[in-house]
Design goal:
This protein is of the alpha+beta class and about 325 residues long. It is about 40% helix and about 20% strand. The longest helix has 19 residues. Strands 6-5-4-3-7 form a five-stranded antiparallel β-sheet.
Length: about 325
């Protein structure tokens, strides 16, 4: 690479680090005079890179948004961070419906990596194992994701076309509070002004989103993630389970996280000792009860089943199977 071309690319790298860079600073960093810096800036502009001249005492040059993304100059660490981020996002299922975009982006970065860094990256990817299974392919449309995010940021109502789990289609207006990524899916939570209630929707089931005129004021001290998890925990299922468990919400959520159960600590009776330890009310809505006895046993805490009665029998059967296994002796030899 000739020195002028290398210096033009180095100039682009300096500008991509952000802020306004003065001409004397750039001249010093590049080892050229100020007139040459201005010529290099002209080369970048000819290539379509959006370089803006800033006048005044603290003026200089900076990059602005253009009609297309200019060439990116990434350090080894930055390139590695981008590629690992793409791999992790794809593995977690957090991508848009144009699922090949992450693959093509990774391929483009991978092709221009120095051979030395490419080999080291291959070593990382070949030796990397994940403890969680690959994310399910429930990706939202890119336009839907960007439109809803824009409505969230500017507190604007948005019209969405939604397909429910049972196939029913509807069109409604939503005042979106926030986007939440949970267990490989994207969710939007907000208020449905037509019914006066908060609702949570999966983005992959939204087939169209359009920002509407007007604005709204979101509730104070809002936590979109907590609202989504509470909505998932209280969604209508076949069984409604109500328990009292001795322990704090933090202790119970090690086995029953917020997306599965609602946990509310009950007022303490005061005093000291195990019998006065705090209790919590746990509420779940589930399609099946057969997995709950093992989870309750793993809590290793006293609990009371308030409903359903069917769960009491399943816990007794599970306890009997554990006791039977504990009494078994190993075979001789």
């Amino acid at each position: 690479m000739t020195r002028p071309v290398a210096r033009v690319l180095t100039l682009l790298e300096f500008l991509q680090s952000g802020g306004v860079r003065s001409v004397p600073e750039l001249a010093d960093r590049l080892g050229v005079d100020e007139r040459t810096v201005r010529r290099y800036v002209g080369h970048l502009i000819d290539l379509g890179v959006p370089v803006e001249s800033v006048r005044g005492r603290y003026g200089g040059y900076r990059l602005t948004s253009g009609y297309r993304m200019p060439p990116l100059m990434l350090s080894d660490d930055e390139a590695l961070a981008v590629l690992l981020g793409l791999v992790a996002g794809q593995r977690a299922g957090l991508m848009t419906a144009t699922g090949t975009a992450s693959e093509t982006a990774a391929a483009k970065v991978r092709r221009v990596l120095p051979e030395r860094l490419g080999r080291r990256l291959d070593a990382v990817l070949e030796s990397l194992a994940f403890t969680a299974p690959p994310g399910r392919s429930a990706a939202p449309d890119s336009d839907v994701l960007l439109s809803v995010a824009d409505a969230v940021r500017h507190h604007r109502p948005v019209s969405i076309r939604y397909t429910a789990a049972d196939g029913r289609r509807s069109e409604r207006t939503l005042h979106p509070y926030g986007l939440v990524a949970h267990s490989g899916r994207w969710y939007v939570t907000g208020a449905d002004p037509a019914i006066g209630e908060d609702r949570t929707f999966r983005l992959d089931r939204i087939t169209g989103a359009a920002i509407l005129p007007g604005s709204f004021e979101p509730p104070a001290a809002l936590d979109p993630a907590e609202r989504v998890l509470s909505g998932l925990a209280t969604a209508p299922y076949r069984h409604e389970v109500l328990l009292r468990v001795r322990g704090t919400a933090e202790q119970i959520r090690t086995r029953l996280p917020a997306g599965i159960a609602l946990v509310r600590e009950l007022p303490s009776s005061g005093g000291t000792g195990p019998e006065t330890e705090s209790w919590s009310r746990v509420e779940l809505r589930v399609d099946r009860l057969d997995w709950l006895p093992a989870v309750l046993a793993s809590l290793d805490r006293p609990f009371v089943i308030e409903r359903p009665e069917e769960l009491r029998g399943l816990v007794e059967e599970f306890a009997a199977r554990l006791a039977d296994s504990a009494r078994r002796r190993p075979l001789p030899g």
